[in-house]
Amino acid sequence: MTKFPKKPQIYVTEPLLPPLDEFIPYLEQIWGNKWLTNSGPFHQQLEQALCDYLGVKYVSLFANGTLALVTALQALRITGEVITTPYSFVATAHSLLWNGIKPIFVDIDPVSLNIDPEKIEAAITPQTTAIMPVHCYGHPCDVERIQRIADNYGLKVIYDAAHAFGVQHYGGSVLNYGDLSVLSFHATKVFNTFEGGAIVCPDAKIKQRVDHLKNFGFVDEVTVVAPGINGKMNEISAAFGLLQLKYIDEALQKRKAIDARYREDLAGVKGIHCLADAGGEVANYAYFPILVRPEYPISRDALYQELRNNDIHARRYFYPLISDFPMYRDIPSAAQSNLPVARKIASEVICLPIYPALSNGQVDAIVKIIAGQPSR
Predict the structure, then answer these.
(1) Is 9 domain-assigned?
(2) Cβ-count burial of 247 within 10 angstroms (0-12 exposed, 13-18 middle, 19+ buried)?
(3) Interval 249-286: pLDDT, tens
(4) What is the CATH number of the domain that holds 155?
């Protein structure tokens, strides 16, 4: 029986995969070292390489970004309540629950889709100890205003910077803002280590505490100083990250070109709104969200299904809101009336495919589907 090739499917992202033959020498070195984890040579090299590339002082690598978020909160001894956004991946709020912290949701800015600084101050109570904003889609938060609020009330700021690898703000890394910034190196991210993450630390003292916490609290063979976890990145992931760094600038340029093509081709489609680009900032083009407004002929969900019907697996990032999930929806700040902007955006958003291997022909095919929808 003749087998016909399956129609190719287009996903919202694909991992950046350097040539396999270039990865083999790294594996041979790991096998030769017989050092697979526990801060091996590639782990140490990647930490330093990331500091140099990102323009930050200290990086502590993790097995994934969620463990990094959980540990960042512990490293700063955060308790009580933390103000955060409902418009994010669930790991943002889950990290708070894992630490016994109550998330307090506030609305987002309708332009940047980041946490709205105007809403933060009103949500502060005597139990508030920190703010956890998210650089949504890699677009920098209003970091100056957030820091002023934090300073006025004696609060810590931990940035969920899962989307913000390589993003700059006023000539420096956006990762240098706040008390800590947390990165994700999941396979879907701009830079990945298969699975992975990191905490960006401002000084050696906090990095040392983070390093203790991610390794069961061990200081040495016989000394444990904290109830830490096993959050360490292994040598294979670290080696893959070192190889990825060789290709990251090329990948970012390809993402930038795809971003520009989408913007140009979708500019005349009534009811489709593209978020403002990064302007003078150094962006990473991690996502390409569009908002499907009422003037568009069909609903957001109908367009989403139409793309799926054509094997284009776009995603409704972020729908539902975190605040709509069962473990959060009974928190008073999760009330619909408290989050009107976030709720509206969540009902309109679709993230279109964007990754270095996405061809111009594939982008054109996606745009053709969006631009060609009749009224229903």
Answers:
(1) no
(2) middle
(3) 999 999 999 999 999 999 999 999 999 876 557 899 99
(4) 3.40.640.10
Q: What is the model's pLDDT at position 16?
A: 87
Catalytic residue among 119, 156, 189, 214: 189
Cβ atoms within 10 A of the Cβ of 267, count?
A: 9
In a domain, 12, yes or no: no
Say which CATH number the domain at 343 has.
3.90.1150.10
* Residue 9 binned pLDDT confidence (cut-offs 50, 70, 90): confident
Q: Which pLDDT belongs to residue 279?
A: 57
Same domain, 183 and 271: no
- Mean pLDDT of the 204-218 span: 97
Query: 245, 260, 290 — which closes off a domain?
Result: 245
Residue 14 banded pLDDT, cuts 50, 70, 90: confident
Q: What is the pLDDT of residue 374?
A: 67
Q: Which domain holds residue 332?
A: 248-371
- Asked whether residue 134 carries a pLDDT value surpassing 80, the answer given is yes
Q: How far apart are CA 223 and CA 212, in angstroms?
A: 10
- Active-site residue 246, yes or no? no
What is the reported pLDDT for 90? Answer: 98
Q: Provide the number of structural domains found in the chain.
A: 2
| pTM strictly above 0.85 | yes
Whether residues 213 and 301 fall in one domain: no
